[in-house]
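Before relying on records like the one below, remember that each one covers exactly one chain. Contacts with other chains, cofactors or solvent are not represented anywhere in the record.
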Amino acid sequence: MLVPPLPSRPLLAIGLALSGLIGCSSPSVQAEPAAASSGPNAAATATANGSANCKAIGDFYWEVGDGKGTVVSGAVGDEYAPNKTIKIASASKFVWGAYVLEKIGKGKEPDDRTVQALTMRSGLVKFNPIVCLLSRTAESCLTSRSNAEQDPSAVGKFSYGGGHDQKLAIDLGLGGFNAAQMTREVQSYLGGDLGLVYDKPQPAGGMEGTPAGYAGFLRKIINGQLRMKEFLGKDAVCTLPGSCPGALTSPVKEAWHYSLNHWVEDDPRTGDGSYSSPGLLGFYPWISKDKTTYGIVAREQLRANSYWTSVQCGRDIRKAYFTGKAVQ
């Protein structure tokens, strides 16, 4: 979550692929910043501009909102704005999970195989996105090298990576889809108004879009327009290797749980129960535990731990907003 000059595009593409955490212009979706003059708004604004964790990440755009729209927002520096398209990396997973639930159909529960994939317990642990750089379809990505190999010893155990979603895309009939076709398919269920698109056919990390567009997606969840609202936190599994016998690998060093393609921030020491989907480059979207409020920290920086430093800043802003007290 730091913000100096972006790496060259070739280096950025390779970095994204190596990570397994992530992923044109999209239609503009206007976010309407609200003035922060007192109470929660003032606290959130002061924190975004002044907390140690937020100062550490450099330039970024942020907002907090509810089902009606943006409540308070702002930008640190001039690099990011609500309608600037950026790569959202693993924030793609939240969108994919919502799509899967919509595709299954209203009133229908995901079957065991689907739940296993969406909670990263399908045993597809050898997925390496770098071998998919030239892949034109979802299936050609999965069948590259050892990407499609299932490790029987890993079945039923949490192992963070993109292979679970990639295989699920094939199971759902999207194997022959390229990025544009996958975009049209997902938008047909979630809405083209969001402007979230795939720049590569990888459901776990191949999306890009604007903060305003993603905010629209979060509002659809909060408002119950998407089934994901009733599935937030459902079937959650423990994820912290060492303290959880059912976990093999995780990018999060706290005792969070993982639900249907989203995290549950419920570490006993630091968690508040929010639902989130941080992306490798620092895009951090969240929904509050009570499912009434959402937030975003938006930036695109290929740096070690960009996702985690954005989480720390975003948590400060969330805490300030809900307590009405700025975090230093």
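Confidence is low (pLDDT under 50) at residues 1-37.
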